[in-house]
Design a protein that fits this description.
Blueprint lengths: L2 H23 L18 E7 L2 E7 L6 E6 L4 E4 L10 E3 L3 E3 L8 E2 L4 E8 L2 E10 L2 E9 L7 E10 L12 E8 L11 E4 L2 E3 L5 E16 L11 E16 L10 E7 L5 E9 L5
Antiparallel strand pairs: 1-2, 2-3, 3-4, 4-5, 5-12, 6-7, 6-12, 8-9, 9-10, 10-11, 11-18, 12-17, 13-14, 13-15, 15-16, 16-17, 16-18
């Protein structure tokens, strides 16, 4: 690995090592509690806060299995497709970016956010606000009721402010980024990356896809490994095509995320939208 790539990989691993401790510790499947309960048989959403994690459940009566979690310290958002699924890949709701002018370590990824929520018909609408570098970010996440072992969130994001980005083709500004773990062929949260129906096996380290491929549809495939059972496949569908690529940092510590898979822009975007779907690992 050349010096440029080594510095990038080191920063990548450092950020994930700090963030994932909170993610793993607080994402054990649980029943989300709420002071408001629907009558028996009527399914609805339940939202509660456990420390820095917003727990989102769906059910009825006193049975509200957890389907999603928003980590307020980082904007990492996790989804599962059923109560039998394990937690796996996260989507980072704040953009990530490279900027020597505005980021303390040249690279900004993950930051504290606040969130409020309301029910809209059968859907749950989250309103999230945060700041990354000097950019102010507002996002609306609309969750539709889980059905057919699938959970879908529609995300709309707006950014205000300006920033000087570094010249890094394929990674200067990352409006949507997935974070996961793949340590070996038997120890993983994600077994492979995909664009459309084409599967990309992970390298031992380095670029997952290079040069980037322009697409609207990309994600990370889940499944069952010796580390975890039934992790979801997480699929992102953008409103328009963008370059997609990713990086795997080799590690022997499976408690740390070491896979990043993202779409990119060479400038700060003022707005974007996408859907993210959690579904069984065998689906593509």
């Amino acid at each position: 690995m050349n010096e440029h790539a080594h510095r990038r990989a080191t920063r990548f691993a450092w950020v994930y090592a700090l963030l994932l401790v909170a993610v793993v510790a607080s994402c054990a499947p649980a029943h989300a509690a709420s002071p408001v309960r629907a009558s028996a048989g009527t399914k609805t959403w339940s939202v509660s806060r456990d420390g820095s994690v917003l727990q989102i459940g769906y059910g009825s009566g006193v049975d509200f299995p957890q389907y999603a979690a928003l980590h307020l310290r980082s904007s990492f958002f996790r989804m599962v497709y059923s109560r039998a699924a394990g937690w796996g890949t996260s989507v980072i709701l704040l953009p990530a970016l490279w900027s020597k002018a505005s980021c303390p370590t040249d690279y900004c990824q993950g930051a504290p956010v606040t969130a409020s929520w309301r029910r809209s018909g059968s859907s749950l609408v989250l309103s999230m606000h945060g700041k990354i570098a000097t950019l102010k970010v507002a996002a609306t996440i609309t969750l539709t009721p889980p059905a057919n072992r699938t959970l879908i969130a529609h995300v709309s994001t707006k950014v205000t402010g300006t920033i000087k980005l570094d010249k890094r083709p394929g990674e200067a500004f990352k409006p949507v980024m997935l974070s996961s773990m793949h340590d070996s062929s038997t120890m993983w949260d994600s077994r492979a990356a995909f664009i459309g129906t084409r599967v990309y096996r992970f390298p031992s380290s380095g670029w997952i896809i290079h040069p980037p491929v322009t697409t609207r549809d990309f994600g990370l495939q889940g499944g069952t490994s010796s580390f975890k059972k039934n992790t979801p496949t997480i699929e992102v569908v953008l409103s328009g095509g963008r370059p997609v690529t990713g990086w795997l940092q080799k590690t022997s510590n499976h408690k740390n995320d070491n896979v990043g898979f993202w779409c990119a822009a060479n400038k700060v975007l003022s707005s974007w939208s996408f859907s993210v779907t959690a579904e069984p690992g065998a689906r593509l």
